[in-house]
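Q: What would this chain look like folded?
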Amino acid sequence: MELAWKRVKSNRGSAGVDGLSIAETAAYLRAHWCRIRASILDGSYRPVPVRRVQIPKPDGGVRELGIPTVTDRLIQQALLQVLQPMIDPTFSEHSYGFRPGRRAHDAVLDAQRCVQDGYRVVVDVDLEKFFDRVNHDILMERLARRIEDKAVLRLIRRYLVAGIMDGGVVVERYEGTPQGGPLSPLLANVLLDEVDRELERRGHRFVRYADDCNVYVRSRRAGERVLEGLRRLYDRLHLKVNEAKTAVAQATGRKFLGYELWRSAGDRIKCAVARKALEAFKQRIRQITRRSGGRSLPEIAERLRAYMPGWKAYFQLAQTPKVFGELDEWIRHRLRAVQLKHWRRGTTMYRALKAMGASEADARKVAANSRCWWRNSRMRLNRVMPIAYFERLGVPRLS
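A: My prediction, written as structure tokens:
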């Protein structure tokens, strides 16, 4: 329980329906833990309903989260710490999501190996609202095959049926394991392990990360057969395939975990940032570097340092140095335009450029067209504000 509490504290997170923060929950537990512990042991403990939170998706729609109280997150985390070492080793080696010692990078590299080995067609299966549609009876039956302790099974079921608080009203839940609790990812893997085992039994090459499953085959005809079999299997688990996002297609150019694969001149399969992820990155950079923000370049550089290193670390597998170089150039271009707008007046611009070492001709030319921030930032400021200038400001680089 102490280890679970440390993990819950480190994850931070917001309060549940009781409104208690982590600090307030610590004080509450000091007074009430003996009673809570006794109720867990005698089987009378009842989890509190989760708080419904809707997060907008980049492509439209919302992702629904269920935020348990901090106390329930603590108990779920303790359950996870006991159950995961028992259950996780039984999962397929081709399953990567929410597993200790495994990352999205490992899944992308496995997919790359499959395509490099000649499996150039992918069966890309998307499940519709997977976490909201998990059938409780089917999940508990699969769990009972792995867990003998009926008291633990009873506690897990109570978490599944605890209900959702929405607008002050508790809505009963008959299916789904809401995202937001520590236990949900493990339960999802328990249910989907059945899909993994069936694919292994049939000898297929596949990669699964949570509910994203890609099966790699040699022909479109084989892919159609695999997809039909998967539809039947998911139907047996009472899960619904999202037909609009599911496809049998060429593996190269298909998005997977933010990456896409491409074929180089030497017929080598390489990784790149997916076009959708690139556009999302550029949109975020536009927000940070917008010229109407009124922030100085050091302030913008600080915000870039908070965002770009994490993005770069996730997409470190991308084998596209030219793309990253062009993005760096584009960011510097935007920053130069921001600086020009800050100077505003032609006379101010002229004096500032001269002080930075610009030639007389460049300073006069830029000052004469003082409102053309974007064009001037590309044409004449490269010499005055080179790469070294932005490195001194602490602007991160991708390439």
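Residues 321-343 form the longest helix (23 residues).
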